Amino acid sequence: MNRSLFRLLALPLFLVVAPDFSAQEKDKPKPRKKRPAPVVSPTIHENGDVTFRVKALGAEKVSVTGEMVNGRLTLEKDGKTGIWSGTLEKVEPGIYGYSFDIDGVKQVDPGNPALKPMRSPRTSVLHIPGGNIFDFDPEIPHGTVHVHGYYSKPILRYREMRVYTPPGYESNDDEHYPVLVLQHGHSDAGSTWTEYGKAHWILDNLIAAEKAVPMIVVMLDGHPIPESYGNGRSPENTDELRRDLMKAALPMVEKFYRVKPGRENRAIAGLSMG
Amino acid sequence: MNRSLFRLLALPLFLVVAPDFSAQEKDKPKPRKKRPAPVVSPTIHENGDVTFRVKALGAEKVSVTGEMVNGRLTLEKDGKTGIWSGTLEKVEPGIYGYSFDIDGVKQVDPGNPALKPMRSPRTSVLHIPGGNIFDFDPEIPHGTVHVHGYYSKPILRYREMRVYTPPGYESNDDEHYPVLVLQHGHSDAGSTWTEYGKAHWILDNLIAAEKAVPMIVVMLDGHPIPESYGNGRSPENTDELRRDLMKAALPMVEKFYRVKPGRENRAIAGLSMG
Questions:
Q1: Degrees, nearest 5: CA angle A219-A191-B1
Q2: What is the rounded CA–CA span in Å between residue A272 and residue B32?
Q3: Start-end of CATH 3.40.50.1820 domains in chain A
Q4: Which fold has domain B144-270?
Q5: What is the ipTM of this complex?
Q6: Residue in A1, A145, A196 closest to B147 by CB
Q7: Contact across the interface for A196 and B1, Cβ inside 8 Å
Q8: Portions of chain B given CATH number 2.60.40.10
Q9: What is the pLDDT along chain A (274 residues), one digit of tens a residue?
Q10: Cβ-Cβ contacts under 8 Å, A267 against chain B
Q11: Which of A139, A172, B61, B129 has CA atoms 20 to 30 A from the CA of A48?
Q12: 3-state secondary structure of B266
């Protein structure tokens, strides 16, 4: 780990000073070694075409697979630069998981910071906005996603919980809200609902359209036992999840957030394993 | 995108029911196609050794590079399974970024869900706990990281802000806190402070040890202009960051959070570009 953060934070507050690299450079006027420009991928063109690019000098076969393509898109190599590229025509607005296949190894797009949170991270996210319920709408108010890291005493494990609060939650002190628990599918993670599924933006949109009541949404990681990933059904995993939810997570939500009481204000939903 | 989430959320609240897959399976008793077990990587052994593994059937050379190894660790292939593996001896407790190099393509470890958030995602995170200030301590109280997605009117862009609030923030209504803004280095992202740097755990530890006063920490993405990544210094990028921070982000923090007023309660720090 780069220790700079620790050194900075270990200093007393307000004595913190960012290092002045410009001064250092004046003393040592060595020219920086110029790195090649990063490979940009994907590029969403105005006509809806999408171009994928990846540098793989020695590779023999490179293709793209994903939710926006039937089968695979075979990329072609530029012999000079070693950059493989290919274009999909007229991709509909939407959110798509996709991967590069470089000589048989499925992997994320190193040109794209948007990754689908998964147990086995091999999937990048292509989001083409365009009138969908899961798009971010700059014209409406937005909720907040709160990340709690905690040690769950009922199962003796470190756990993370994400809590969505609806628009206006921070600005009023009186309103109380019902609680929905969302559970993800096998191989995903607690953050997949928001990072990939855009659950928070869907809720913002539904609430703004008065198609959903303002609510608090709780998203837990569904694999408290890491080894439960990839090994079929695990009653032990489900049991740990239940105990963590009922005895640690929900009590924390009820303590920290303004929630309505009672079973008529609790719901749970999910997809696949969830 | 898998539309299940939308379908679920579009239903009226409390009518939501998770599909009952067990019943479906009774009707259609086809055996599932058994997938091979996932490749586990990395494995941290009790003696401090760390084993890395990746499946790459057709690859010719696979190695690991990273902050915990001088040069590179060359992996060896199991001819039957196509799984490459290798072990580093006695790795000190710490947090390390590392990558696989498969025939010259640097990439994340697909066996490890912990990724370093970067503009060009090629780096996984190995965290070996052991008495460091950046470890999660189950014995002390913990703060919360709040994620705000917003449309920044001063720069006309979608932006994300992470806000750390110290332990106890949710349980008291009166206390007000000073504000520290943290800016990350070139090629990182706003979430790198927490996902990789564990800034929130460092603060929890320092506050518990009374080495830091409880404070609110604001973490913004330092590349409001995406093209500023990889293209050297960008005064335009710095200017957008400044306007977003001063005219959108900080006003939001001052509206939503209990912060102490005045310049004596504001600080900014960062590393490298930050």
A1: 105
A2: 15
A3: 144-270
A4: Rossmann fold (3.40.50)
A5: 0.87
A6: A145
A7: yes
A8: 43-128
A9: 544 544 444 443 333 333 344 444 445 555 556 677 899 999 999 999 999 999 999 899 999 999 999 999 999 999 999 999 999 999 999 999 999 999 999 999 999 999 999 999 999 999 999 999 999 999 999 999 999 999 999 999 999 999 999 999 998 889 999 999 999 999 999 999 999 999 999 999 999 999 999 999 999 999 999 988 887 778 999 999 999 999 999 999 999 999 999 999 999 999 988 8
A10: 13-14, 16
A11: A139
A12: strand
